[in-house]
Amino acid sequence: MMSAMDLKPRRVLVTYESVTGNTKRVAEAIAAVIPGAVLLPITEAPDPGEYDAVFVGFWCDKGHASEAADAYLKSHPSYPFILFGTLGGVPGVGYSVTYENRVREELTAAQVPFRDFRLWQGKIDPELVEKSKARFPMTPERLSRIAAAATHPDAADLKDAQVWALEQLTGS
Ligand SMILES: Cc1cc2nc3c(=O)[nH]c(=O)nc-3n(C[C@H](O)[C@H](O)[C@H](O)COP(=O)(O)O)c2cc1C
User: Fold this and answer.
1) Is the pLDDT of residue 19 over 70?
2) 87 lines ligand 1 (CB under 6 A)
3) Is the CB of 61 under 6 A from ligand 1?
């Protein structure tokens, strides 16, 4: 079992882009288990070179990494970022896999040598659900997907994010 005592890097930045709070909650959970970690919104993120490890969190915006985080990553090629994110879909299933692969491919093409990329589910803003009804019919499957996302990120997700984050820093 990893503990904060085993951490190797000393200066750690956790930066995130979040509109409805899901990615921010994951970022806060991660920063909370890393002693001395600096937690900043992506708009205030300094040059990653000032840190030994940089976690960058973003949300899935219509199948792409949210814009400000994407721009930050691509404007610092060659830094080995550690990536995390939230999305409405279930990580590892169907469309979420397409999204994850797309982000990986785009960053690789932009020569951003990220170390890992983990996703957690995040509730979908009710206003967006309302607006998208016109474009996407509310099938029973869609309604149940939205309902399933509504409780995330939950306590288990946040704990999982903390374990994952410590593993990133201990290199195991
Ligand atoms: C404009 C918009 C577009 C979205 N597009 C997708 C999408 O393509 N796929 C998906 O799984 N979730 C999508 N979502 C859901 C968000 O990625 C999810 O709710 C995320 O956790 C929001 O993060 P935040 O609370 O940190 O802003 C979208 C949400 C919004 C508001």
Assistant:
1) yes
2) yes
3) yes
